[in-house]
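Researcher: Structure prediction, please.
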Amino acid sequence: MQIKIQQAFDQQEEAYAMWIGFSDPDYGDMYFVLGNSTNTNVEGSSPPEHTAATLDDMFQIGSISKTFLGTAMLLLESSGDLSLNNTVQELVPNFALEFPQHANYTVENLLRMETLVPDFLNDEEGIINDYSQNISKWYLVEEIVNYVLQR
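Model: Predicted structure follows.
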């Protein structure tokens, strides 16, 4: 399998590197790392040529998580475990009690991003502004969630 993945990677010209992971309950985990790392925290700079990509490289995943989440929600709906019309109140009642302004949003509202999210980009004392001043800073999930929920 690794040879086929390497051949496919070698034939393309768009990506500098590729990180692939598989997890199978019978065979365990397999990871493949191909190409050269472009991991950098300095805007406009590039790493030395031929710096091999490693499993320890960190990079932003962009918006791909929306695709996975949407697919997972539709699979749950097709199996009858969830409805796109379910509300936050129905699915996460403790959350809805603590943040009643979000209680009536439906799964569909959330997936379509129709929940009237506040403008975090122009919040001068917000987490986005803080991150733009120091892009190497790491945030705990709890810090991000608490920041968003307080807006």
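Model: The first strand starts at residue 17 and ends at 24.
Researcher: Thanks, that helps.
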